[in-house]
């Protein structure tokens, strides 16, 4: 098994955003033994193929986050990815350690990555050339576990079926302020309602509603865009769609997307993707698609809840 590559410096900010997003998710699952690896950290999978780069965390408060990008967009020509399993490499890494290593490299003029062993422990080794002193090299190792067999195949992004409802998210800071207010008011469950706008084709009203013992809260975001990926995308048959989530989970998913976009709305598109058949697909997905690094995508999947009674909203 071999891996060696020189990282494109212009992609470093995007990898920093991606690892920050996954580190946030990993902290949510840090208290669960089921998410802990032998490295002493929540499980984060890194999968490398000749064409794709995958990074993801799973089972964090029943949420999962998947990041993917094309290998050619991240590495300079000449990278080496070799293994007996169709040149696919699967690793378990400490994503916070990986994020801090990339931060250390943020002021370097050259970054080389490779798989190596240090005293019998597998590591993802980074060599940095200082931007001011070309003869100064810095080496930083991230401990890894090597996946074998079918675990390598499942370490990437799973197939996420096409969904009927694809809605552009409102400004993330504004949406998060609403969810944070609901949390302070003890509204632990939020219902997201999407209703197409008759007067504006291709747009909808996106509403957040929650209730506690003492207060009802509802905020609407008018004129959110209804997105159509292509002409073959499934079209919704219902007049509107509503799903309920734990408030903290939806807020966490939006914060992960904000980490990916560095808090700037012009860095990419954030959308809420909702299957129409909740019984078959009891989940929704927050998607981030970078506008600067086109192959970079985030899929943050969170489970839905049985909706509270209508009279509670």
From TrEMBL:
<dbReference type="GO" id="GO:0031573">
    <property type="term" value="P:mitotic intra-S DNA damage checkpoint signaling"/>
</dbReference>
<dbReference type="GO" id="GO:0000724">
    <property type="term" value="P:double-strand break repair via homologous recombination"/>
</dbReference>
<dbReference type="Pfam" id="PF04005">
    <property type="entry name" value="Hus1"/>
</dbReference>
<dbReference type="GO" id="GO:0000723">
    <property type="term" value="P:telomere maintenance"/>
</dbReference>
<dbReference type="GO" id="GO:0035861">
    <property type="term" value="C:site of double-strand break"/>
</dbReference>
<dbReference type="GO" id="GO:0044778">
    <property type="term" value="P:meiotic DNA integrity checkpoint signaling"/>
</dbReference>
<dbReference type="InterPro" id="IPR007150">
    <property type="entry name" value="HUS1/Mec3"/>
</dbReference>
<dbReference type="GO" id="GO:0006289">
    <property type="term" value="P:nucleotide-excision repair"/>
</dbReference>
<keyword id="KW-0539">Nucleus</keyword>
<protein>
    <recommendedName>
        <fullName>Hus1-like protein</fullName>
    </recommendedName>
</protein>
<dbReference type="GO" id="GO:0033314">
    <property type="term" value="P:mitotic DNA replication checkpoint signaling"/>
</dbReference>
<dbReference type="GO" id="GO:0030896">
    <property type="term" value="C:checkpoint clamp complex"/>
</dbReference>
């Amino acid at each position: 098994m071999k891996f060696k590559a020189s990282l494109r410096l212009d992609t470093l900010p995007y990898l920093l955003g991606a690892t920050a997003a996954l580190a946030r998710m990993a902290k949510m699952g840090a208290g669960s033994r089921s998410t802990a690896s032998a490295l002493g950290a929540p499980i984060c999978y890194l999968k490398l193929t000749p064409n794709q780069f995958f990074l993801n965390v799973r089972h964090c408060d029943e949420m999962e986050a998947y990041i993917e990008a094309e290998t050619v967009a991240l590495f300079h020509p000449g990278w080496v990815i070799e293994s007996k399993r169709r040149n696919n490499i699967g690793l378990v890494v400490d994503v916070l350690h990986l994020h801090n290593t990339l931060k250390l490299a943020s002021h370097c003029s050259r970054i080389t990555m490779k798989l190596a062993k240090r005293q019998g422990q597998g590591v993802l080794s980074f060599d940095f050339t200082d931007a001011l002193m070309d003869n100064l090299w810095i080496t930083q190792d991230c401990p890894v576990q090597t996946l074998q067999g079918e675990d390598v195949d499942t370490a990437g992004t799973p197939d996420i079926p096409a969904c009927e409802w694809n809605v552009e998210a409102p400004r993330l800071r504004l949406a998060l302020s609403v969810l944070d207010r609901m949390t302070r008011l003890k509204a632990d469950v939020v219902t997201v309602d999407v209703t197409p706008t008759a007067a504006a084709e291709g747009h909808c009203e996106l509403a957040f509603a929650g209730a506690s013992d003492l207060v009802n809260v509802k905020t609407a975001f008018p004129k959110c865009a209804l997105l159509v990926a292509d002409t073959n995308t499934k079209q919704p048959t219902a007049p509107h769609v509503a799903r309920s989530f734990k408030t903290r989970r939806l807020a966490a998913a939006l914060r992960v997307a904000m980490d990916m976009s560095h808090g700037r709305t012009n860095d990419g598109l954030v959308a809420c993707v909702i299957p129409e058949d909740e019984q078959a697909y009891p989940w929704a997905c927050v998607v981030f698609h970078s506008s600067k690094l086109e192959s970079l995508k985030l899929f943050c999947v969170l489970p839905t809840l049985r909706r509270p009674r209508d009279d509670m909203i």
